[in-house]
Amino acid sequence: MNLRIEPTREAKELLWKLERKKAFKDQFESAAAFIEFSLEAAWDFYDKHPFKEIKKYD
C-alpha cells in the first residue's frame, strides 16, 4: 500500500461537487477541513476498533 496521498481525478471531481453544495459549505470552511475531519473520524474508529474494517469499502 502506498501511504503517500496523491489526489486522483475522481477524488478531485468529488471534492469539486461537494464544495458546490450549500449544506457542505455551511458545515465545512473548505475541502481541506472536510478531509481533516474525515481522517480524524477514521482514526477514532480504528482507535476504538483496531481489528474491524470500515463498512462499504471494497
Write a structural description.
The chain is an all-alpha fold and 58 residues long. It is 60% helix and 0% strand. The longest helix is centred in the C-terminal third of the chain and has 18 residues, at 31-48. The mean pLDDT is 85.
Derived structural class: mainly alpha
Head-to-tail CA distance between termini: 15 Å
Instruction: Detail the poorly predicted runs.
Output: none
The chain-level mean pLDDT equals 85
Order of helices and strands: HHH
Tell me, briefly, the overall form. Answer: globular
What is Rg?
13 Å
The counted number of beta strands is: 0
* Fraction of residues in β-strands: under 5%
Please outline the major beta sheet. Answer: none
Q: How much helical structure, as a percent, in the residues?
A: 55-70%
Quick overview of this protein structure:
With 58 residues, the protein is mainly alpha-helical.
